[in-house]
Amino acid sequence: MRTVYVNGEYMPETEAKVSIFDRGFLMADGVYEVTSVLGGKLIDFAGHTARLHRSLNELDMAEPCTDDELLAIHRELVERNNIVDGMIYLQVTRGNPGDRDFAFPSADTKPTLVLFTQSKPGMAESPMAKIGMKVISIDDIRWGRRDIKTVQLLYPSMGKMMAKKAGCDDAWLVEEGKVTEGTSNNAYIVKGNRIITRELSNDILHGITRAAVLRFAREAQMEVEERAFTIAEAQGADEAFITSASTFVMPVVEIDGKAVGTGKPGSVAARLREIYLEESLKAAI
Ligand code: PMP
Predict the structure, then answer these.
(1) What is the pTM of this model?
(2) Site to substitute for ligand 1 among 35, 186, 216, most atoms within 8 A of C-beta
């Protein structure tokens, strides 16, 4: 049985409880982070911590603890659950004010902090990286602050189900004719030696993996163009791929039933995946 963390305590998952008045439960008033673990070490912990601060700050939510404490909790959970490869999920909510009210509670309501692990042995050797993903496109009807990593995940969840129903692996979200991102990842296309991905704004989550992959791509002398693209442009590209903390770099081989490039995972995505895994492992803590 897993050991999880809830508000200062480690306990078996079956004993973990959060109030029915918690604003995370009643109002999706919470933010989260997912950090990958490879070989027992945390991948880009500093990046995830920085984005957590940003999400909390944008929502006027209190910091649950210090960065050192957060790191210690992550490490303790890895150790107690013998995680070699997997993920650590962290969620902070505006806490339990003792009743339901739209107004934010007073400052003496403590934030709720929950962390748990998900073991995924051999996560870096995902078979999907060799096969590639199939995606469909759907309308992006999410709210306007997608740069904040909130637990408001109903539409992304519905998008995954629409993809599943269509026999595909994920959905790319489209707004005003242009791809914003995947349901839980950032979206890219490749044309020759050029990697194209939407620029940062409130329209997309500022992926921690995105930042790392673009840095490694530039260091490897690949061209990077940050701009939006259409589904038609993606279907006509040489390659397509996605990035996220849990999938790293994952090729996309089909979009709305049309093969991208050769219909097989491309060499640019494969190379970026290799560089990302190698460099991230080197820097893991
Ligand atoms: N966009 C969305 C909507 C996401 O949910 C995620 C993953 N949480 C990402 C992009 C990728 O972000 P990261 O690389 O930090 O996992």
Answers:
(1) 0.97
(2) 186
